Amino acid sequence: MITGIKGTRFRRAAAVTLTTGAVLAAGAFGAAPAGAVATPTIAAKGGYVMNNGTGASLYTKAADTPLSTGSTTKIMTAKVVLSQPNLNLDAKVKVKGIYSDYIVANNASSAHLIVGDTLTVRQLLYGLMLPSGCDAAYALADKFGSGTSTAARVKSFIGKMNTTAHSLGMTHSHFDSFDGIGNGNNYSTPRDLTKLASNAMKSTTFKTVVKTVSTKQKVTTPGGYRYYTWENTNKPLLTGYTGTIGIKTGSGPEAKYCLVFAATRNGKTVIGTVLASTSITARTSDATKLMNYAFAR
Hints:
Number of helices: 11
Helix content: 25-40%
């Protein structure tokens, strides 16, 4: 059984941008030398990369071993929202006190939603995927679950996450939370998360959100309006690796450091996952090594 992901100092650290010196020292963003096809060694416990156009596996390391996923869980949260029938991305959602209480109680990563403010579903997706807001995840689960109480709606939403996982053939995955702060039974594998990400990237909205480095969003308040500014926790890859188009970081005491990534070069898109790497620097380096390897094949 995979243990939960209580506490999110690790997730908050994920927002730290690597210095140029550290990146260069690690050789993280160097282009792959022509013809370099030696299988890379990564720090992560699990890794997987595929050619997104053909579905061909290009690299595997414990690719089907279930591991804690941290906030990469939020890819599924977004997928479920974007799969809703007749979805209105401009639908309004009012921020409830329980969302901010949840952040405080779990020391969770936050979009810093302010109680009483009203955001659109689209804005909540940015708050979910860029700063990895567990409050935004809660708001979306509450909005798109079914039931007469918040608890019932959240339970329903998590059920939709697992139904979606089954429909995508994610045979070694299970979700028991809307954000990755699990209750002992929230896990996936590098191959399964890559399947999920590949499918999610078919959505123009999802693809637009996850490749955004930063955004400033105007939201309605009880007295008028205010602006929220969010930066992407995946900024090191988005700004440092040519062709990067996403996707999502994750971290936590059990998950360690995770990254679901995708990039396109010369018309070829590769997509993959590393789980349980050893640091922010290491997960970025792991992803870069795997993308270099994939593009060289």
